[in-house]
Amino acid sequence: MRLRTILCAGMLALTATSAHALDRSPENQASDASRIDAMRVSGGEVDRSALAELQANLLRWIGDHSPYDVSELFDQLPAVAFCDHGATYIYKGKPMHFGDRLAGVYDNVDEQICLANPWDINNKRHQSVLLHELIHFVQFRSKGWFCPQKTEWEAYKLQEAWMRENGLEPNFNWAFILLESGCGVRDRHP
To answer: DSSP secondary-structure letter at 68?
Structure first.
């Protein structure tokens, strides 16, 4: 089975600064001529400028609601791509199956966000997933994390606050998030 990298057929990439290529392998490097002005998602397109504006607004919200200084991150926003459920993509340099339960992921190695298709820029729940992944971008840019799982609790708490501000009920499974945010040795049984 041939693995698809994040820059692949059926999923187009975007960068707010046009500085990142989603797949950094030599055979798949994006050239200036191949950059796109809109991204295809299931059922339509996302305008690059509208997504960049949304990212900037969400980053501003993160700065206003967290201890992080985001002032120097506006011109360094991560690339955003749209992933199809069931596909395999390169994540942190390794194959990753984009499962049905994933809404988005942030790759802190290549500084890119992958959001699940279908994605609607006007849907507040979908925006909250982008916010969550942008929180991870800010977290990893702001400090080193001995235990990367620890970032999840804070990201979910900020996402919850944003969702409530926007009239949404988060319905998160806090017990699961707490377990997934821990860094201790886990004794898992089949």
So the answer is: -
Q: What is the CATH number of domain 13-143?
A: 1.10.10
Q: What is the DSSP letter of 166?
A: T
The pTM assigned to this predicted structure is: 0.75
- Inter-CA distances, 163 with 58, 101, 124, 186, Å: 12, 19, 8, 31
Q: Is the peptide bond before 26 cis (omega within 30 degrees of 0)?
A: no
Q: 2 is written with which tokens?
A: 């041939």
Name the pairing type of β-strands 112-116 and 79-83.
parallel
Strand partners, 115: 82, 104
Comparing CA positions, the residue from 3, 11, 9 lying closest to residue 112 is 11
Residue from 121, 173, 125 nearest 152 by CA: 173
Rounded distance between C-alpha atoms, residue 120 and residue 88, angstroms: 22
Taking only the tens place, the pLDDT of each residue in 121-164 is: 999 999 999 999 999 999 999 988 888 888 999 999 999 999 99
Rounded to an integer, what distance in angstroms lies between the CA atom of residue 13 and that of residue 113? 10
